[in-house]
Amino acid sequence: MRFDRSETSVEVVIPIMNAPPQPQPATIVSRLTRRTLANAIRALSMDAVQKANSGHPGAPMGLADIAEVLWNDFLKHNPANPAWSDRDRFVLSNGHASMLLYSLLHLSGYDVSIDDLKNFRQLHSRTPGHPEYGCAPGVETTTGPLGQGLANAVGMALAEKNLAARFNRPGHAIVDHFTYVFLGDGCMMEGVSHEASSLAGRWRLGKLIALYDDNGISIDGDVGGWFDDDTPKRFEAYGWHVIPNVDGHDAEAVRAAIFKARAERERPTLICCKTVIGFGAPNKQGKESTHGSPLGAEEVAAARQALGWSYAPFEIPADVYAGWDARTKGAEAERAWNERFDAYRKKHPDLAGEFERRMRGELPTEWPAAMRDCISAAVAKADAVATRKASLLALNVIGPLLPEVIGGSADLAESNSTIWKGAKAITEADAGGNYIHYGVREFGMTAIMNGLALHGGFIPYGGTFLVFSDYARNAVRLAALMKRRSILVYTHDSIGLGEDGPTHQPVEQLASLRLMPNMVVWRPCDVVETAVAWKQAIERTDGPTSLVLTRQNVAPQTRDARTVANIARGAYVLAEAAGGAPEAIIIATGSEVALAVEAQKLLAGKGRRVRVVSMPSAEVFAAQDGAYREAVLPAAIRKRVAVEAGVSDYWRKYVGLDGRVVGVDRFGESAPGGALMKEFGLTGAHVAAVVEGIFSK
Ligand SMILES: Cc1ncc(C[n+]2csc(CCOP(=O)(O)OP(=O)(O)O)c2C)c(N)n1
Ligand SMILES: [Mg+2]
Q1: CA-CA distances (angstroms) from residue 56 to 258, 278, 368, 628?
Q2: If you measure from the C-alpha of residue 81 to the centroid of ligand 2, how many angstroms do you get, rounded to a whole number?
Q3: What is the Cα–Cα distance from 231 to 270, expressed in whole angstroms?
Q4: In terms of CB atoms within 10 Å, which end of the chain has fewer, N or C?
């Protein structure tokens, strides 16, 4: 049995601040054995899982000793203020170990009660099956989809380094925190761990410290049969500082490793901790059976005995609470930081104000007027421009105005038009830039963007081809789930991209992004709609936005001032029927809006009165009041045709049983874009013919 190894009584000396050169106030908090403190996590975890009759006891029990050392000796945080900007970030990438995090939050003094723990996994509880951002204070990110927490942590560590480069001044290190992440075999196996870790090494994120739960077990059993990488060598190859072979049940060894990790300021550190899954459950520890099911009443009782934990379920003795309580030292740490920030404010008032604005996520006061001018300039610019280029025009206005906007692309900077005039690359030598070359790593990029957005102080945008949004899909989903302001720039948005062929031509991606709850998709049709889309994306504070943009040029549309104002409502009457009340409506988005207008003209020649509705954002339109929606799409007008170069099914709800959709319901072809648009019926003449067809039905 390895679980009685470090039963030594130690005085826990807590360094309160991070930076080693500064004098460290120290507090002696406990004379309890470290093992007893860790056992509180084990007991709470196995009891909560037992009570819920569902959950994952193995990882929390295996990681308890490591977590105890990290949280009690190192983590800089204030349970009373989980939003304190300079707290260390703690990410549990192996989110199935949620009871570990909930126990830590409860024990250290966050507003997470014992009743919250008793409600683990229950309806509307603050302790759902996997940690969800926003459910309980202290949960820094939503984890469970393995590997992404690590990538989020990379984003947070990059955020810290970038803000430090931008805001710290000699003698005023107001941004100075670590990012810690726990991860398991599953996170290591996931490809996104490669994408994110490779970048972390390149960016030399010296204040990122990952602790790997190397327990040799995943759901199917001993990982040897499917995961036999030399993980230390792998991370060394990424340029990480690796501390291998740490006994994760030896508090002193873990403590020494974390000290070493913190002293290394150039490279991120991976601490490989050998652990026993389900540590303390005498008959089940070390086995996959502890991974994802309750231990069972008998084994829970046996574990209590083995661990010397004689308390009832959910009972924590006062001295154990006292040993964990981080409130006093947390308040003191934040108070000390506030003092330092006040000194900074005296010396650098503008920087201090700007830092606070950014961390609040507020836009500067000049924003509304600047965007009004940007949109007016777009109205005046009557050129045929690809909307990806229109996006760059908008970015050239937004970039200089909002230093919190941090861009990038997955190796398609030119194609995605993501590098604006003042964009400055983040490099190893200079972390203070505002543009990230993510390399060909769509998933890593999107998960890192989530980390940047979660950290605070940033509005990330990242580009790739629309068709490759699928590579990043789950990180996009988590941005939506977490309600983070992340801006996805997806160009080459249809078969209109041309010769690259069906592998590169998105067909189902557009509709599929719209299916995601809390995702807002904009597919603008010209320079003006693109400027409005960017404005809306930046102003949206409760979720991500996908900007879906053309490779090919699109004609500018003409609008009066009221029509321009209506773009922000998601859909609007772009071209009203001439000669009386409309009999039919064509709804179109993006590059197909011009076809709709052409069809309208052809139909007018035949005496048909057709309205054209441009619908750049169906989600934003759906959120408008009923009167507005009825004004744009009157229920009585049932002759409707939707036109979009993507799968047709999405549009059925707008055209109804009497309507038709002109779409693309098969993979594309390799040919020049114009030829493909004809081949697939995406022409004004064909759209007009489809509308005619409804009249003659
Ligand atoms: C992306 C993703 N795929 C699959 C799962 C389902 N899953 C949850 S835990 C797990 C095994 C993880 O193994 P490990 O990280 O070693 O956890 P341990 O059993 O050691 O706690 C799997 C496959 C998941 N949560 N996320
Ligand atoms: Mg494992």
Answers
A1: 26, 9, 49, 49
A2: 33
A3: 10
A4: C
Cα–Cα dist 83/194, whole Å: 30
> According to the model, what pLDDT value does residue 62 have?
98
Torsion sign, CA atoms 532, 536, 539, 545: negative
E strand or H helix that includes residue 687: helix 684-695
Question: Confidence class of residue 31 from pLDDT cuts 50, 70 and 90?
Answer: low
Per-residue pLDDT at 382: 81
Which residues touch 37 (CB under 8 Å, ≥6 apart)?
30, 68, 72, 320, 323, 324
Residue 486 near residue 541, CB atoms below 8 Å: no
The residues, any chain, with a CB within 8 Å of residue 417's CB and separated by 6 or more, are 388, 389, 391, 392, 395, 463, 491, 549
Identity (one letter) of the amino acid at 287?
K
Between strands 572-575 and 610-614, the pairing is antiparallel
For residue 664, give the DSSP letter.
Answer: -
The one catalytic residue among 195, 299, 404, 442: 442
Residue in the block written with tokens 């993980």: 231
Query: Model confidence over 637-662: pLDDT tens digits?
Result: 999 999 999 999 999 999 999 999 99
442 is catalytic: yes
Does this model's pTM top 0.90? My answer is yes
Q: Which atom of ligand 1 is nearest to the CA of 290?
A: 19
Q: How far is the CA of 187 from the centre of ligand 2 (A)?
A: 9
- Provide the strand spans (E) within 194-282: 208-214, 217-218, 221-222, 241-247, 269-274
Q: How crowded is the C-beta side of 312, counted as CA atoms within 13 Å?
A: 3
Q: What is the pLDDT of residues 105-131, one digit of tens each?
A: 999 999 999 999 999 999 999 999 999
CA of 208 to the centre of ligand 1 (A): 22
Q: Is 277 in the pocket of ligand 1 (CB under 6 A)?
A: yes
The amino acid sitting at 308 is G
Pairing of strands 553-554, 385-386: antiparallel
Residue 646 CB partners (closer than 8 Å, separation 6+):
494, 506, 507, 508, 509, 510, 511, 663, 664
Q: Is 215 in the pocket of ligand 1 (CB under 6 A)?
A: yes
Give whole-number Cα distances, 163 to 75, 308, 425, 484, 642, in Å. Answer: 20, 46, 15, 19, 46
Any alpha helices (H) in 381-490, and if so which ranges?
Answer: 387-401, 413-416, 442-455, 473-482
Ligand 1: atom nearest CA of 187 is 15
Strands annotated E in 46-93? 89-92
Closest ligand to C-alpha of residue 92 is 1
Helix (H, G, I), strand (E, B) or coil at 181: strand
Residue 196 · residue 146 · CB < 8 Å: no
* Alpha carbon 126 to its chain's center: 20
DSSP H helical ranges for 428-558: 442-455, 473-482, 509-514, 527-539
**DSSP for 321-363, written as a single string:** HHHH--HHHHHHHHHHHHHHHHHHHHH-HHHHHHHHHHHHTPP
